[in-house]
Amino acid sequence: MATAVKKRPRISSAAGRRPSRKEVLERKKAIDELIRKAIAVKDHLVQFPAFHKFQGNGLSVYLESGHGDQLTLPVNMEEPYGPEWPSEEKVKRQEMVAPEARYIFIKQYSNGFTTECSMNQDAGVEHMHTPCNEGHLVGFVHYRFVLEEELPVVYVYELQMEPSAQGKGLGKFLMQLIEQIACKNQMGAVMLTVQKANTQAMAFYTKLRYVISSTSPSRVDPQIGLEKSYEILCKTFDCEAKSKLEDGDEEL
Fold it and tell me: Which residue in 21, 180, 183, 248 has the fewest CB atoms around it within 10 Å?
């Protein structure tokens, strides 16, 4: 599904000239406002009707926006984090319920089918994707609108699914949705962190054309990269983001 992408505010300057303090402050203010507006949207999913349901390979689910305190799915992060998990657990649990955390929940009815409520258009109901009955939670995406290398990006903190929902195209579908949300809100990229030991996840994101970011430890300093258990991946949507997050250039 094609989505019109608006250009992010950018302060132009003559080639070779460093931006003035005023230009830097104006740019920062404009980018902060972009992130503020994106965070203020109550339901990003409602803007993408094509992503309200996923059906394929024997799987039929529907998607809902929500918050971390609604999670009922047992969160399995111990395996991908390995021996680092005991020291990371408290931080991760706090991240999941932070006010700035945004979620897409994947739910499935017990009979495997979704049935939407009939809507009264005169009543002004907006959330057409909201089902009549609560379904079984089979996965979620935790994402945030943040600043990375002075650029606005969507950062995917977690993407988790039950084994029964894996390997059926749902993961690709969810990442396509996140990318649409990023573009709609004029973010420069989608970024995420993957544990090196999670070779399956690394292969998945590589297939979706995510690359190791210039901000990843292995590219900042190869020696430090050897000591770290993770890589930072990104997919950029414009030349400025590509320059800073893929190529690692300080200036265009």
Answer: 21
Tell me the torsion sign for CA atoms 63, 65, 70, 71.
positive
Structural domain boundaries in the chain = 42-247
Instruction: List the Cα angle 202/54/34 in 5-degree steps.
Output: 70
Q: Please write the tens of the pLDDT for every residue from 174-213.
A: 999 999 999 999 999 999 999 999 999 999 999 999 999 9
Backbone region of residue 209 per phi and psi (left: phi > 0; alpha: psi in -120 to 50; beta: other values): left
CA distance 142 to 96: 7
Q: What distance in Å separates the CA atoms of residue 60 and residue 116, rounded to the nearest whole number?
A: 13
In this structure, which CATH number among 3.40.630.30, 3.90.580.10, 3.40.50.300, 3.10.180.10 belongs to the domain 42-247? 3.40.630.30
What is the bridge-based pairing of β-strands 151-161 and 189-195?
A: parallel
**What's the Rg (C-alpha) of the chain?**
19
Separation of alpha carbons 69 and 140, rounded Å: 12
Contacts with 138 (C-beta within 8 Å, 6 or more apart), sequence order: 61, 73, 106, 107, 108, 161, 162, 164, 165
List pLDDT tens digits, range 47-105: 999 999 999 999 999 999 988 877 754 455 455 555 655 666 677 777 787 888 999 99
Q: Which two tokens stand for residue 99?
A: 């006010």
Single out the residue of 94, 93, 63 nearest to residue 77, CA to CA: 93
Dist CA 237 CA 240 (whole Å)? 9
Strand 53-56, strand 189-195: pairing = unpaired
